[in-house]
Design a protein that fits this description.
Blueprint: H1 2-24, H2 29-40, H3 44-56, H4 61-73, H5 77-90, H6 101-112, H7 117-128, H8 137-150, H9 157-166, H10 174-185, H11 193-206, H12 211-231, H13 248-279
Helix pairs in contact: 2-3, 3-4, 4-5, 5-6, 6-7, 7-8, 8-9, 9-10, 10-11, 10-12
Length: 283
């Protein structure tokens, strides 16, 4: 009986959430007419807004598919990424963008990744998992992740660091691997599960570097972090530590913990590596 009561409560909560979501995305008839006119004239944002209305409010799947396709055709980046995901994961119709699902996903993500780092990271993931085939998949994935990082996509850092460290898709590059893993550890709470995994990889890469190489990377990392925090009012984008939903006070506490952990690690590493260099035991 208790199980049924819990299930009922969860069902009611889900229905309530959907109702609230539907209300938030609702459009009056006149608003829909205005958006349709704009979309017909080539407005990608208007087409995407029609998609969200039919997807989240009217729940008309056929019209939602129509407007998502239209928004993607008009170059809406989020629409292109989302449609690529829907085709790859859910088997959504692909014919507007390619003869096969793979061709459609490749076209959508390639177009979007010209200016969007998240799309480039998605493209790297699809290459890496062999979605487009296995010929040169690692080299293509690595190139996509490098492009994503150049477009300031933090989601690509950990995977790119691992590929550079392991020599996947090209020659190993421990210095660049260290740069990206250091960026990621400074944007992840060190005591979290993800943070501990990142620090494990970071220490493996550190073992391949000299103290001077590590220090040079720290200078690059500090410059990047300072620039990004200034640009985004203290937050790296995509925001670390679960993002903007965290209360500011907790955010600042976590950020302080991350910075302190980084400072302590560098101090200890300089001591350890300096001693090893002095004894001649470090390669």
């Amino acid at each position: 009986m208790k199980i049924y009561a819990i299930a009922l409560m969860l069902f009611i909560a889900a229905q309530s959430a959907w109702a609230h979501c539907g209300k938030a995305y609702h459009l009056a008839d006149q608003e829909q007419n205005n958006l349709v006119a704009k979309a017909d004239a080539g407005d990608a944002d208007a087409a995407y807004r029609m998609y969200t209305y039919h997807s989240m409010s009217s729940r008309d799947e056929k019209l939602a598919t129509k407007w998502l396709d239209r928004a993607a055709e008009l170059g809406h980046l989020e629409a292109q990424r989302w449609l690529a995901y829907m085709i790859a994961e859910n088997g959504s119709p692909h014919q507007t963008f390619g003869k096969t699902p793979q061709e459609a996903v490749l076209k959508l993500l390639t177009d979007a990744s010209k200016t969007d780092g998240h799309a480039a990271s998605d493209l790297g993931k699809r290459y890496q998992e062999g979605y487009f085939g296995h010929a040169d998949k690692d080299a293509k994935a690595r190139a996509a992740y490098i492009h994503a990082a150049a477009l300031h996509c933090a989601w690509s850092w950990d995977t790119l660091a691992a590929m550079l460290h392991n020599g996947e898709g090209g020659a190993a590059d421990q210095i660049e691997a260290y740069y990206y893993i250091c960026l990621d550890t400074q944007c992840t709470h060190p005591e979290s599960v993800g943070g501990q995994e990142l620090w494990e990889l970071r220490r493996k890469i550190e073992a391949k570097l000299s103290l001077e190489q590590a220090k040079e990377v720290w200078r690059r990392v500090d410059a990047y972090i300072a620039k990004e925090r200034k640009r985004s009012e203290g937050r790296i984008y995509p925001p670390p530590l679960l993002g903007t939903g965290i209360p500011e006070k907790q955010w600042n506490e976590w950020l302080k913990t991350t910075d302190e952990f980084e400072a302590q690690h560098r101090k200890q590493l300089q001591k350890t590596m300096g001693e090893q260099d002095a004894s001649g035991n470090r390669r």
